[in-house]
Amino acid sequence: MTPPKPSYRRRIGLLGGSFNPPHEGHREISLAALERLRLDAVWWLASPGNPLKDAKDYAPYDERMALARRTANHPDIVVSDFERRHNLQCTVDTLERIIELNPDTDFIWLMGADSLASFHRWKNWARIAELAPFAVFSRPSYGEAALASEAATTLAPFRLETDNAGELAGMEPPAWVYFSDIDNPLSSTAIRTDRS
Questions:
Q1: Dihedral over Cα of 60, 91, 167, 12: its sign
Q2: pLDDT tens digit string along 123-170?
Q3: Which whole number is the average pLDDT over 11-35?
Q4: Comparing C-alpha atoms, which of 163, 48, 177 is closest to residue 108?
Q5: What's the CA dihedral at 121, 90, 37, 106 to 10 degrees?
Q6: Cα separation of 101 and 82, whole Å?
Q7: Domains identified in the chain and CATH numbers
Q8: Is the pLDDT of residue 192 over 90?
Q9: Cα separation, 34 vs 13, whole angstroms
Q10: How many C-beta neighbours within 10 Å does residue 2 have?
Q11: What is the residue-wise DSSP string for 34-78?
């Protein structure tokens, strides 16, 4: 006899990135996601490398992981080396694998508006949108470009109002929400530039 499925499904936000370096903007959107999307946790998926970025710009992986843990500083934000352990680099592959390994969990992909603006350049971006709902957080000077992007216009019929964001976890994708009131100016690229 097959045991009954548990009635409660975990609700996890996934924030991918190089975290090179991690900063308070990552933490701010994670805390907002925990509250507004009614999540149990947010997992920071620290990528060993991004195929759209130059590898020579990366700090050592273990250094980025340690700094991410210090920056997260919250019991419900988990810094994970999932992509390194599974030898993954692209979001679509990461999502497929993480969903396969966690059948009792509803995942929401989290991203900034800068990522939405270039989402159509990601490997199999339409497949990503079919795998999990996603939440987008505004970034200074990216809002207009993000909402006019190929991905946003294609997926416009599936966009939720922010008042319904708490229903996003567990929804059949594609489904997404855009938070325009979180507009953190911090940027890993700018931080690296200021340090050099």
A1: negative
A2: 999 999 999 999 999 988 888 999 999 999 999 999 999 999 999 999
A3: 95
A4: 177
A5: 130
A6: 11
A7: 10-195 (3.40.50.620)
A8: no
A9: 8
A10: 4
A11: HHHTT-SEEEEEE-S--TTS-GGGPPPHHHHHHHHHHHH-STTEE
- Angle subtended by helix axes 24-36 and 61-72, to nearest 10: 50
pLDDT of residue 185: 58
Q: Say which residue the tokens 């996890």 belong to.
A: 12
Alpha-carbon gap, residue 88 to 187, rounded angstroms: 24
Query: Which pTM value belongs to this model?
Result: 0.88
3-state SS assignment for residue 148:
coil
Q: Report the C-alpha gap between 129 and 44 in whole angstroms.
A: 19
Nearest-angstrom CA–CA distance, 146 and 153 = 9
C-alpha distance across the termini of the chain, in Å: 62
pLDDT digits (tens, 9 = 90+) for 25-54: 999 999 999 999 999 999 999 998 765 566
Q: Are 89 and 49 within 8 A, CB to CB?
A: yes
CB 38 within 8 A of CB 47: no
Could you give the strand order of the β-sheet that contains 105-112, starting from the edge strand earlier in sequence? 77-80, 41-46, 10-17, 105-112, 134-137, 176-179, 159-160
